[in-house]
Write a structure and sequence with these properties.
The protein is of the alpha/beta class and about 550 residues long. It has 2 domains: about 240 residues, no CATH class; about 240 residues, 3-Layer(aba) Sandwich (Aspartate Aminotransferase, domain 2), CATH 3.40.640.10. Helix content is about 35%, strand content about 10%. The strands form 3 sheets. Strands 2-8-7-6-5-3-4 form a 7-stranded mixed β-sheet, sandwiched between helices. Helix 1 packs across helix 4 and helix 14 runs parallel beside helix 16. It is globular and about 70 Å long.
């Protein structure tokens, strides 16, 4: 008995240290959030049972943390419950008690030591003027941590990377045209391409949008309405550089890379607008109207939305354009517009281009590219569509920001954008990815996760998975992520989608600590490995709703 007791203690202590290493790699703002989550776990595990009249949300709501810059540790915020303050991490005993709620090696998994994460920079070397405190976020952080457990992105092996933000890129989709193995390099492509892109590709993009979304409209896009950019982030960065003296609203949760774009530029003021869990994080038009009323003159959103996998209905999108026309710049990230399943997987897609009245008067910028729809993320060929004046400004910005897109790949992309060819390709894409969506929802449903019309994604290849019904550490995105690593599965913790570009006070109150984002972008056999891994975790914790054997 004594030997067994010491063995369990050693395992628990090693797992505690392992989790501390994991938590220590978080960016500072998320580290504060993670600490409050740990306290939530402790509070929920020691609190008396809730009465039946109390809502489910009351059981899982994280405590309201204090903002580190505004309130010293241990000084309660007036009017708030003193038990909800961020714990003092300098108290090692208290810290270990909290972390052990997430790191305990319970339910059959022995602790397994991991190498200490290497510092991002060598602190012993002086680096003049360098920002050495920059932290990794989102997908990069998740894959870095997986790398410490043996994951190698070039030799994936039996790992399931359900955290990836890219679709499968091989010739694996029935009915899809083969990805090019070689491309020609015409003499013209040896020269720098214009920072707005080569004219032929700009014309092909304009023609595709006119034929697909504007066939019956008098106002048509021309090549002057198109700017080719080296990737979606480059497009967003160019846009951020040309707007100024305005309030820009964006909605949470959303694409994690927005945080860097919104924090680097000081020529506008970003305003985060948290969406409600009860609404499944839907962006209501009433909320947008309120933003316009308080003087916002730019709105940024992904549609379809990352990470929730939902998009606005056509009538909602139409109403949004009517509300914002002549009042507010709409920046519409439409990279997942072709991963759209509401129309029977016919190859149709949804785009703001359909609701623009005058292409040169309506202040609407649309981002898309080959990255997702054509499953060619490595090509870095994307575009921004909008009024000529905005496009001219974006072209100028490219001359000092990124220098423009790869010329040979631009020439190769022209043929892809034939409207009929795109429609056929998108039909194959939608049928395949809807099959994968239905597969993981089917597997997770049998494990005890609940899905209905509200939380079933109708677009993208992401699932915003609610963990709140799971026991102990599994109800927390960091604890779930930690257990997944031991099963060679990668997911993205939900609180990375808390975009807080200026560390605005008390924004940490909005924490999706009971969500992870799961990607069904990988090939089916990797999804099978991932679902098998999650199933093993739930079985060990005794919360699997069925026995697969």
């Amino acid at each position: 008995m004594s030997s067994s007791f010491h063995e369990d203690s050693d395992n628990d202590q090693e797992s505690l240290l392992e989790f501390e290493r994991l938590e220590s790699t978080l960016p500072p703002a998320l580290k504060r959030s993670a600490s409050s989550l740990l306290e939530a776990i402790q509070t929920n595990s020691t609190a008396p049972l809730h009465s039946p009249s109390e809502s489910h949300d009351a059981k899982i709501r994280a405590p309201v943390p204090q903002h580190a810059r505004d309130v010293p540790i241990y000084q309660p915020i007036p009017g708030r419950n003193t038990g909800t303050a961020t714990p003092n991490l300098k108290n090692r005993s208290h810290r270990q008690t909290l972390i052990s709620k997430l790191s305990k090696s319970e339910n059959g998994r022995e602790a397994s030591p991991i190498p200490l994460p290497k510092p991002k920079f060598n602190e012993s070397i002086y680096k003049p003027a360098m920002n050495s405190k920059q932290s990794s976020t989102g997908v990069l952080w998740a894959t870095e941590r997986a790398g410490e457990y043996g994951y190698d992105s070039e030799h994936v092996g039996d790992w399931a990377n359900l955290g990836q933000g890219a679709p499968e890129h091989g010739d694996t989709i029935p009915g899809s045209f083969p990805r090019p193995k070689t491309i020609s390099v015409p003499d013209a492509s040896r020269e720098y391409a214009p920072t707005a892109g080569i004219k032929q590709l700009r014309e092909a993009v304009a023609h595709y949008y006119n034929e697909t979304y504007r066939a019956n409209k008098p106002s048509k896009y021309t090549y002057k309405n198109v700017c080719i950019v080296p990737g979606g982030r480059a497009g967003l960065t160019r846009i951020a550089s040309i707007i100024s003296d305005c309030y820009l609203s964006f909605f949470l949760p959303d694409y994690t890379a927005y945080a860097e774009m919104l924090s680097l530029f000081k020529n506008f003021s970003p305003i985060p607008v948290p969406l409600k869990e009860a609404d499944n994080y839907e962006m209501h038009l009433k909320m947008i109207k309120e933003e316009l009323t308080r003087g916002v003159s730019a709105l940024l959103t992904s549609n379809p939305r990352n990470p929730t996998g939902h998009c606005m209905k056509p009538d909602q999108l139409h109403a949004l354009h009517n509300m914002c026309r002549e009042k507010c710049l709409l920046i519409m990230d439409e990279f997942y517009s072709h991963y759209y399943y509401d129309d029977g997987c016919t190859g149709s897609s949804i785009s703001s281009a359909e609701y623009v009245e005058d292409v040169n008067l309506d202040p609407v910028l649309i981002l898309n590219g080959l990255t997702k729809a054509f499953r060619l993320p490595g090509w870095r060929i994307c575009w921004v569509l909008g009024p000529e004046d905005y496009i001219n400004a974006l072209s100028s910005a490219g001359s000092f920001l990124d220098g423009g897109s790869n010329a040979p790949f631009q020439f190769a992309a022209i043929d892809f954008l034939q409207p009929l060819k795109v429609r056929q390709e998108m039909k194959a894409l939608q049928l395949h990815f809807k099959m994968k969506r239905d597969y993981i929802i089917g597997r997770l449903s049998r494990m005890g996760f609940h899905f209905d019309e509200k939380n079933t994604p109708n677009s993208t290849f992401y699932l915003w998975l609610n963990l709140s019904h799971l026991p102990g550490k599994l109800s927390n995105c960091l604890g779930f992520f930690h257990e997944c690593l031991h099963e060679k599965v990668i997911v993205v913790p939900g609180f990375f989608f808390l975009i807080n570009p200026q560390n605005l006070s008390h924004l940490e109150e909005v924490i999706w600590y009971n969500y992870v984002r799961i990607s069904y972008g990988p090939e089916l056999h990797h999804l099978e490995l991932g679902m098998d891994g999650i199933e093993r975790i739930l079985r060990r914790f005794g919360c699997l709703s069925y026995d697969t054997h």
